Amino acid sequence: MRTCLLFAVTTLALSLVAQQPSTQPAAQSTALTIYNEDFAVARTQIDLDLHPGLNEVTTNQVTTQLEPDSVVLRDPAQHDSPKKPTFHIAEQNYDAAVVTQEWLLQKYEGKTIEFQSARNYVVDGKIIPIPDIQAKIIRAPQSGGQYQQNQGLYEVDGKLQFQLPGTPLFPASTDGLLLKPTLRWQIESEKGQKLSAELAYITGGLSWEATYNVIAPNVGEALTEEKADLIGWVAIHNQSGTEFPSARIKLMAGDVAKIAPKNNYGYGSGRSILSAQTVTVNGQVAQKAFDDFHLYDLNRTVSLRDGEIKQIQFIEAAGVALARSYSYDGADGNQNANGYGGNFIQQQNFGLSSDNTKVSILEEFKNSQSNHLGIPLPAGRIRLYRRDADGQMEFVGESTINHTPTEENVKIATGSAFDIKGARRQTDYVIDQSRRMLTESFEIKLTNQKPQPVNVNVLEHLYRGDNWEVTAKSGEYTKLDSHTIQFPVAVPAKAEAKLTYTVHYTW
């Protein structure tokens, strides 16, 4: 009788354990500094027992997405003094080929192995080599001519088939099997010595992001300024292919420049954020300025399994002053020149194709100590909840924020107002090509069906040229940048308000 599947798998597993390197040191805790851009720096200790001359040392305390040329193995004693190293690395090899069914099928191409069927009987099948990967891809007419990947080609009882004959049973004596990614070194030592060396490397597959929940109270319709609670979380994603049973974790906030490796572990754009004092957040998590970035230390050891998303609360604040405002952009930033020809900025209808009527809702708070915050806030998603009259929280919108230093404002765009609408139209347009002048006028109408008056900031984009002057206006405005102005407009309850202005361009 043939050997059953359970016995074959058990035998293979025992063989894999037996083949692990005898020089593998006991597992150590790992320190991880995780960055926003899907990579991390890992640091651990490797116990070395070196004899004079050449030594072979292996470790599997690494990930499947390790960047081999980032590996640093050194004596920690060199941190404090520039003394000559007591050992020298002559050669380093990294093997991330952890055993999979696909890897074993490829290894046994051209050979006959056993396959366990669903009915628990065993058949012999030969794995047919397919040298060209194109031969493994066939056209499937039933799927609209799309190409689909096969599972290979197999010979069973003198006949060929594409589907696996069953669960493959591989010989337990297979060479080169790895349960974990492995680093191997050839280390030259001047003398016999035992020491705990520091291993550091960069790996992909680890990332983190911040999320914030703002809980605003029920204050009826008078929403000018209110007191809200803010809770911040960090979510750590481990897709590195490795488990960290005992990890000390720090999180680096900011955009650190990182060249993307060929396997696209991640990279940053090189922007930076401002520095601040060391602050203890939520009693345990501490943040401090580090170089031109910010470092958050969880100050505890956590277990981080492969494929896990671990969430940790890092900030909690009460009594945060939250202010609501409304914004109307009638042109909706429309500056599309398609279809207007070369002198598009002189065409009368340029910038008028938008018929936007939506008035945006903005909630804003200041990241300051006087507002019960005052720590650098990492970029992330921020959600706003509001309590109903019955005390239940209701979700009322979300947006994203950039890295926000202290003393800066945080704005949450939560959606569009149901009862407030806007309309924008051009009321006059005059162009004098010979004198290189253009004048146009606009009317913006705002309607408010709420039982309370509201203030709406109207954005206007002066996109026709750099040389402009507002020659007439029904209200004062603020210049936001070289091509954008903002009018504050008070809209009475159950009524409407109009804004008019004229702008004169020269070129």
Task: Name its key features.
507 residues, mainly beta, 8-stranded mixed β-sheet, disordered N terminus
Write up this protein.
The protein has 507 residues and is mainly beta. Among the domains are: 101-169, no CATH class; 319-506, no CATH class. The chain has two helices and 31 strands. The strands form five sheets. Strands 15, 16, 21, 22, 23, 24, 25, 26, 27, 28, 29, 30 and 31 form a 13-stranded mixed sheet that branches. A hairpin with a 7-residue loop joins strand 8 (137-139) and strand 9 (147-149).
Give the overall pLDDT as a whole number. Answer: 80
DSSP summary: helix tally: 2
Count of DSSP E strands? 31
The 3D shape can be described as: elongated
| Helix content percent band | under 10%
- Alpha carbon gap, first and last residue: 94 Å
Radius of gyration, taken over Cα atoms and rounded to an integer in Å: 33 Å
**Strand share of the residues?**
over 45%
Q: Kindly name the structural category.
A: mainly beta
Biggest sheet overview: 13 strands, mixed
The low-pLDDT segments are 1-27, 132-150, 263-283
List the helices and strands and how they pair.
Elements: H1 5-18, E1 30-35, E2 39-50, E3 53-59, E4 72-74, E5 87-95, H2 101-107, E6 112-116, E7 122-127, E8 137-139, E9 147-149, E10 154-156, E11 159-161, E12 167-169, E13 182-189, E14 193-204, E15 206-216, E16 225-238, E17 244-253, E18 279-281, E19 285-290, E20 293-304, E21 309-329, E22 358-366, E23 380-387, E24 393-401, E25 409-432, E26 437-448, E27 454-461, E28 468-473, E29 478-481, E30 484-491, E31 495-506
Parallel strand pairs: 1-17, 15-23, 21-27
Antiparallel strand pairs: 1-2, 2-14, 3-13, 4-14, 5-13, 6-7, 6-12, 7-10, 8-9, 10-11, 15-16, 16-21, 17-20, 18-19, 19-20, 21-22, 22-25, 23-24, 25-26, 26-31, 27-30, 28-31, 29-30
